[in-house]
């Protein structure tokens, strides 16, 4: 463990495992490893991208993470749910699917927002007794015990309005709305536009790929799916593997998921990494590329083309070299090589020509 401040150091003296060392500083270490588990998580959708919801503009419109922080005992209000005026709210709106299932932002469902919104509704009721209204498109309570939790909330007299929120405004149209935030929404079950005045609005934003996903993607040479999260090798048969051997995925970096699913995937990824270590050897692809050093001009186009980062440029020899254990034999280097130095084992021109001649003879 590493602490920035010295403190009293009682913990250092008392820790039987000797895990605390106050003299340690930050350091960058290079480790040689045989397997990597990527578990870099997600970023929360920035609700400012939907200005009509008022986040960052209207006081008392808060994000889901801010609400989590407020509820925490070590948070700014000591765990009490309060408005910006320091009073417990008498009415709270929870807006689901902010940025999710939205063609203008993220088309996919973020999976966890329905359930964390229900958790918020329960917390608000428990802590303040306020009237809580959930604005949802569809309720997706998909996991074990989740539907029961949803039903329990309905019995706790939490309101549910089915419809996508059009806007959150502070422009009142009636004395009842004055000084409040008004959530405007088409109630698709009743078939009418509703204006619901509340004192606090929580925006349940969706999950999006982490900001450094692109950078990590380049470092590790793994693919991303259309939604920007890291892509697994096969959605059903290899859900924690990637197209690059030895690199595994766990948690929300692969797509939105809740804690139980992240933990399960983490255990599977660790098992995958251990099985590689346990075997002690790897089986190479029978079809892989090689570079004829005599022909290579050292242009490095193959280095840039290789999706598996399997090619390195040897500056001393002035040629590119294949790392056989990483090569998947995709042929990107062969197709792009201007000097014909990159060759596909068992698929060289002369072999293909011989095969064609054999077929035609
Ligand atoms: C508001 C909110 C409430 C939620 N409530 C619940 C709930 O009640 N129950 C539930 O089951 N789920 C809940 N979830 C979902 C839950 O947060 C996720 O399932 C969980 O965080 C996923 O875990 P993870 O480890 O994959 O990602 P994260 O929790 O995002 O952790 C990833 C970690 O990797 C670190 N990291 C990122 N990039 C790098 C890098 N390049 N190098 C080193 N480290 C890096 C990050 O700093 C972070 O610490 C909630 C989500 C939100 C947004």
From TrEMBL:
<dbReference type="GO" id="GO:0046872">
    <property type="term" value="F:metal ion binding"/>
</dbReference>
<feature type="domain" description="4Fe-4S ferredoxin-type">
    <location>
        <begin position="318"/>
        <end position="347"/>
    </location>
</feature>
<keyword id="KW-0408">Iron</keyword>
<keyword id="KW-0274">FAD</keyword>
<keyword id="KW-0411">Iron-sulfur</keyword>
<dbReference type="Pfam" id="PF12838">
    <property type="entry name" value="Fer4_7"/>
</dbReference>
<dbReference type="InterPro" id="IPR036188">
    <property type="entry name" value="FAD/NAD-bd_sf"/>
</dbReference>
<dbReference type="InterPro" id="IPR039650">
    <property type="entry name" value="HdrA-like"/>
</dbReference>
<keyword id="KW-0479">Metal-binding</keyword>
<dbReference type="GO" id="GO:0051539">
    <property type="term" value="F:4 iron, 4 sulfur cluster binding"/>
</dbReference>
<dbReference type="GO" id="GO:0016491">
    <property type="term" value="F:oxidoreductase activity"/>
</dbReference>
<dbReference type="InterPro" id="IPR017900">
    <property type="entry name" value="4Fe4S_Fe_S_CS"/>
</dbReference>
<keyword id="KW-0004">4Fe-4S</keyword>
<keyword id="KW-0560">Oxidoreductase</keyword>
<comment type="similarity">
    <text>Belongs to the HdrA family.</text>
</comment>
<protein>
    <recommendedName>
        <fullName>4Fe-4S ferredoxin-type domain-containing protein</fullName>
    </recommendedName>
</protein>
<dbReference type="InterPro" id="IPR017896">
    <property type="entry name" value="4Fe4S_Fe-S-bd"/>
</dbReference>
<feature type="domain" description="4Fe-4S ferredoxin-type">
    <location>
        <begin position="287"/>
        <end position="316"/>
    </location>
</feature>
<keyword id="KW-0285">Flavoprotein</keyword>
